[in-house]
Design brief:
3 copies of one chain form a homotrimer. The first copy, chain A, is built from 3 helices and 8 strands, in the order ββαββααββββ. Chain A is of the alpha+beta class. In chain A, the strands form 2 sheets. A 5-stranded antiparallel beta sheet of chain A has the order 1-8-3-5-6. Chain A has a 3-stranded antiparallel beta sheet with strand order 2-7-4. In chain A, a hairpin with a 2-residue loop joins strand 5 and strand 6. The first copy, chain A, is elongated, with a radius of gyration of 16 Å. Chains A and B meet through strand 3, strand 4, helix 2 and strand 5 of A and strand 3, helix 3 and strand 8 of B.
Chain lengths: 139, 139, 139
C-alpha cells in the first residue's frame, strides 16, 4: 500500500473563486504512478474553502462571488463577530457552506474528475493569503 | 486490502431531489463482503450534486426544491454566465452549496447510514440527465 | 495497515453550533499511535451536521445561528413538511448545506487541523439530542 501526504502551499490569491487544479496536481507528482486510489484534499483554514466546479468560464467564477456576497453580506448588521473586519464572519459562513475536504477517486494516475470539473480555491477574505492544503492519497 | 472502484451510471432523473441509495448499493455488490471499510461516493458533474438526507417523506424532496430555487433563483439579473440557460449558473451554485463527495463508513457489509439517511442525487438542471458517480471503497 | 472504527455518541447539545473537537478526539485514543493516515468523521443524522470552523470565539457560534436561521427560517410558509415541527424541514436543509462527513489527514498522532480549525456539531433541532458520529480512521 502507498500513502502520500503533502502540505501544499498555494500561491496567494485575492478574494474570489480560483481554479487550482494544476497547482494541486503539480504538488503531487506521485499521483501519476497510482493505478487505483483515492485523494483527499483538505484546506487548513476557516475563511477559505474548496469546491469542485466548472473549469472553463471566467464568468462562472465572477457569478460565484456575486451570489455568495449577496447571500452572506459583508458587514451585515446582525453579525457580532466583527473585530477582524466586515469580511471575516461572512468568510466563516461561506466556508461552512462549501467544502473543507474533497475526496476524489484516483484512476490511472489522475484524479477521476469529470470533464468539466476543476478544483477551486474559494478565498473569502479581502486581501491575498497563501493558503495551506493538506493532500493525502492512499492507493 | 481490498479496493473497489466502480463507475456508476445513474438513471436519468428530472430536476429535483431524488433518493438513489438502492441504485448505488446495487452497483456495488462487493460491499456485502466487507466487514470494516469506507466508501467514497463522488459525482463527476458540476450541475448536479449529492447529499445524505431524510429518506422517508416525498414532501422533504419537494421542500428542498422550493428552498433552493428561492435561494438561488433561475435567471437572476445579476448572473452573467447565462449562455447555457437560466438554470445553469444556479445549478453550479447549488452544487457548490451541497456535496460532490460523500465518505461513508462501511460496517458489516453495508454503508453505516443512520436510520433516516438516504443517498440523494440533486439534479439541478432542467431536463433529465444520466449522471456518472464514481464509487471507491477501501477495506 | 490499521483500521479504527468507532461509534461516538456525543453529549446532548441544544440547538446551535458547538465545538466537539476534544470529545471526538477522546473517543479515538488510538489516533495517537498513527503516524500518517486519514480520519473520516461521519454524522448519522439528517437534522444535525458537521463543519470545521473557527475554534476560538463564542460570537462566531452565535453568528452562525443567526445567519442560518435567517437564511432558512423556521416555519416558512412555503414548507409542506411540517408535521414534525417548524424547525424540522429547516434542519434538513441546513444539514444539506453543511457537511455530513469530514475527511481529515492524520499526521504524527493528531488530526492535521489548521491552527484555527475545530470540529463543530451543528444541532439544527430545538431540544437537545444525543447524536451519533461514526469515526473511521485508516493508516
Amino acid at each position: 500500500m502507498i500513502w502520500i501526504q503533502e502540505d501544499v502551499r498555494l500561491r496567494a490569491y485575492p478574494r474570489g473563486f480560483h481554479l487550482v487544479t494544476r497547482e494541486v496536481e503539480e504538488a503531487l507528482p506521485e499521483l501519476s504512478s497510482i493505478g487505483v486510489g483515492v485523494a483527499h484534499v483538505f484546506i487548513r483554514h476557516t475563511s477559505a474553502s474548496l469546491a469542485l466546479n466548472e473549469n472553463a468560464s471566467p464568468d462562472v467564477r465572477r457569478d460565484f462571488e456575486t451570489w455568495f456576497s449577496r447571500a452572506v453580506p459583508d458587514g451585515a448588521p446582525y453579525f457580532t463577530h466583527t473585530l477582524e473586519g466586515d469580511d471575516d464572519m461572512p468568510a466563516h459562513i461561506k466556508a461552512a457552506l462549501t467544502a473543507v475536504s474533497l475526496s476524489i477517486p484516483v484512476t490511472a494516475g489522475r484524479p477521476a474528475l469529470g470533464q468539466w470539473q476543476g478544483i477551486y480555491l474559494f478565498e473569502h477574505r479581502d486581501g491575498a493569503h497563501r493558503r495551506h492544503v493538506a493532500a493525502h492519497v492512499s492507493a
